[in-house]
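User: quick one, fold this
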Amino acid sequence: MGLIAQILIGILAGWLAGKIMRGRGFGVLGDLLLGIVGSLLGGAVFGLLGLHAYSFIGSIVVATVGAILLLYLVRQIR
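Assistant:
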């Protein structure tokens, strides 16, 4: 159940990041896939900073920040 929840949170974070980071994007599916990877990145970055999310809302915030960071980096490289 944890993996499915993480994937759903990542999809939601990707959608939110796509809305926040407007402009020439990767489309809905691309943003959602980057959101899943970005949620893992966000968890890693927040973990390195000593911050952890224990609630559903906290998990969405961490995942969205990671997805925004990943979208920004990929768009800069692209």
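User: anything notable?
Assistant: The mean pLDDT is 85.
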